């Protein structure tokens, strides 16, 4: 169990982000009192505003000073604070096994998810895990205990990425397991049909979830920097191709740029955030830059 945790949690990385809060940008609904603003106005700690008194309201919350100046009854309202649930959804299809060592896409994405899970649990919020390829392979229901991170590491270890992805169907399945406005983080290379993906993401947004796409690509996929004659083998199909990469690089990079632009346009239309991840980069830098940007945007 300790060895599984060691594969997915880096103590130095955890120490660097330990003091960073992961906050939902929108209002959240939760079942416990916590540190995040709720969309439900109640009689809690922080003053929010007034509304006119109606029959049945508790007279203890009448603002009598306002009554003496306005000659009408108003009750004070306050903001409740609540916990939030973050769903970490990880694509474990065959294309995610590209790369060697620490830069393999699936391993890198699993470590990102594990690190975020640990950070979220430490701030007294809840996290769940969904693994999918052509179907949902595993789902760990939300929990706020540190044991949740161990359960997630066990699921990461059991993954065998051999199938194609049917992301749209899997996201629709997983969306049915979410009942409130929550935070949804999806880790994938997004090698899928974007026309099919958009309705599934729209379902998440219709339920008022905040959705973040961590677009995980290997450095080879971003640069196509191969030399000599190379044989490419399909990871999700039995195809293979013997090529001179130098002759294909320009066309490949143009196609990648067009695909990324379509994905960005999809995100913009649906108010979804896309975070570009290069698995050759230092994960601490990616997290620090991303969380700093979230904090600045939240303040604005």
Walk me through the topology:
Blueprint: H1 2-8, H2 11-17, E1 36-42, E2 46-52, H3 64-70, E3 74-82, E4 85-91, H4 105-122, E5 126-132, E6 136-143, H5 147-158, H6 167-175, E7 183-188, H7 194-206, E8 210-217, H8 219-223, E9 230-233, E10 240-243, H9 245-269, E11 273-278, H10 283-299
Parallel strand pairs: 4-5, 4-7, 7-8, 8-11
Antiparallel strand pairs: 1-3, 2-3, 5-6, 9-10
Helix pairs in contact: 1-5, 4-5, 6-7
What's the helix count? 10
Topology, number of strands? 11
Q: Structural class of the secondary structure composition?
A: alpha/beta
Average pLDDT number: 82
According to CATH, the homologous superfamily of the largest domain is von Willebrand factor, type A domain
Q: How large is the radius of gyration?
A: 23 Å
Please tell me what the overall shape is.
Answer: elongated
Distance between the termini: 42 Å
Strand content: 15-25%
Reading off the top of the CATH hierarchy, the class of the largest domain is best stated as: Alpha Beta
Strand order of the largest sheet: 6-5-4-7-8-11
CATH topology of the largest domain: Rossmann fold
- Residue windows where pLDDT falls under 50 for at least 5 positions: 27-45
Q: What is the N-to-C order of secondary-structure elements (H for helix, E for strand)?
A: HHEEHEEHEEHHEHEHEEHEH
Instruction: Assign the CATH architecture of the largest domain.
Output: 3-Layer(aba) Sandwich
For the sheet with most strands, the description reads: 6 strands, mixed
Q: State the helicity in percent bands.
A: 40-55%
Number of domains: 2
């Amino acid at each position: 169990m300790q060895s599984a945790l060691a594969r997915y949690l880096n103590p130095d990385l955890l120490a660097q982000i330990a003091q960073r809060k992961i906050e939902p940008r929108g209002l959240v609904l939760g079942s416990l009192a916590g540190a995040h603003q709720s969309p439900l106005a109640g009689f809690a700690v922080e003053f929010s505003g007034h509304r006119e008194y109606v029959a049945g309201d508790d007279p203890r919350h009448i603002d009598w000073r306002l009554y003496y100046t306005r000659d009408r009854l108003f009750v004070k309202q306050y903001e409740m604070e609540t916990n939030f649930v973050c769903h970490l959804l990880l694509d474990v299809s065959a294309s995610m096994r590209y790369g060697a060592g620490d830069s393999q896409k699936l391993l890198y994405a699993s470590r990102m998810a594990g690190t975020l899970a640990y950070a979220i649990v430490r701030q007294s919020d809840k996290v769940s895990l969904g693994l999918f390829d052509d179907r949902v392979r595993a789902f760990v229901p939300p929990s706020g205990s540190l044991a949740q991170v161990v359960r997630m590491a066990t699921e990461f270890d059991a993954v065998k990425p051999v199938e194609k992805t049917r992301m749209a169907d899997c996201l629709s399945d997983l969306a049915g397991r979410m009942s409130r406005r929550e935070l949804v983080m999806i880790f994938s290379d997004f090698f899928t049909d974007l026309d099919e993906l958009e309705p599934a993401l729209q379902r998440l947004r219709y339920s008022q979830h905040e959705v973040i796409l961590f677009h995980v690509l290997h450095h080879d996929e971003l640069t196509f920097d191969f030399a000599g004659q190379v044989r490419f083998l399909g990871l999700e199909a039995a195809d293979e191709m013997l090529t001179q990469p130098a002759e294909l690089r320009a066309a490949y990079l143009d196609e990648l740029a067009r695909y990324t632009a379509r994905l960005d346009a999809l995100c913009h239309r649906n108010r979804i955030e896309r975070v570009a991840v290069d698995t050759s980069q230092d994960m601490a830098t990616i997290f620090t830059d991303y969380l700093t940007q979230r904090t600045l945007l939240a303040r604005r």
